[in-house]
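anyone seen this seq b4? input:
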Amino acid sequence: MSVKISQLDNGLQVVTDPMDGVQSTALGLWFKVGARYETANLSGIAHFIEHMLFKGTDRRSSFAVSEEIEATGGFLNAYTSRENTAFYARMLSQDTALCLDVLADILQHSRFDSEDIEREQTVISQEIAQADDAPDDVVFTDFQSQAFAGQGLGQSVLGTQQTLSNINRDNAMAFWRHHYRPDKAVLVASGDVKHDDLVRMAERLFWPDRGERGPREMPAAASYTGGVTLKNRALEQVHTVLGFEGASVTDARFFASAVLSTLLGGGSSSRLFQEVREKRGLAYHVGAHTSGYADTGLFAVYAGTAPEAEAELLGVLIDEFKRLADTKVPEDEIERAQAQIRASVLMGRESTSSRAEDAAQQMLVYGIPRSVSDLIGQLNAVDADAIRQEAQTMLASPVTLSAVGPLSDTDSLYEIDQRLR
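predicted toks r here
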């Protein structure tokens, strides 16, 4: 069965990815707005609005927004990232119309009552405090901020206590009206869904009177900066993230970066797991991942270790990066990493929610869903030369290092870039 795409007069794109043999539907609206679209003084406002759209409309109370869908056995949720915001649900297909009505209601008719705004500022203040109490959250937030210093892409999705206090009803509603528009959104459904039925419901429910389209603005181009950021805290471990500029999700290099991250730190057979945990016992968890954005990327390795083992851990990470840049990876390692990624993609095709998410992300990035065969073809084309070249390209960029915990030899941490050259 094939993916179908329609565009409504108001600019909203409607995408369906039908599946045989299922009785449920996963659907949602994805918007091109997130942390990198925010100004520094209102950092966190997209995430704040995500919360506020569940606080009631002219027709529904906050309780009713969730209860109506949960009463059918379905669920409704949302998330905000650095480039996107999504409002999504899953339900039995017989309840699709109800779900769409609730989504349309909260996206167009949320009240933004002053009392709710004050209460939600308190809730998110606690969310920020909770994240600040989690060193693995702090170290990644600092890592992102240092990698893209002074830019939207480096800002925390949650914002800070100060920027949260800057949000009020006027600027929240202005941001909502500007960014949460049909021409900046895609409606995607996967599972037991008929395309023409979804289009008809979308035409009736979502911004039926809004024919104008705003400019397709893009945030300022990202500029990777790198650098070192350290926080001394009285903890049992030092939490460390080491990384480099990676590939944009639209760059052909992204597939080489994905394979590199998998063979380096993806699973128990990966190089870092074997060297850091199995051979040396330096960490319980060690892993690598690559994040692709519209115009850049970020490659990161994370581990938590005892303070006295931090120097040895960093030495291992440096050696493994250099080895990838200096020598070709054996074919069996490449094939294993490709198999891990390939299986993840194919197993995700068995989930309505994963298929809806994948189609939405591809629409926002490429303007059209890409076939699985195309993606796997690019994955399979990655060879030892491409991986070595990707490692060399990353090492040529400034290093980013973030560490949180009981730090002693900070001078050596600030010299990390020299040790990698």
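The first strand starts at residue 4 and ends at 7. The chain has 17 helices and eleven strands. kinda curious what u guys think
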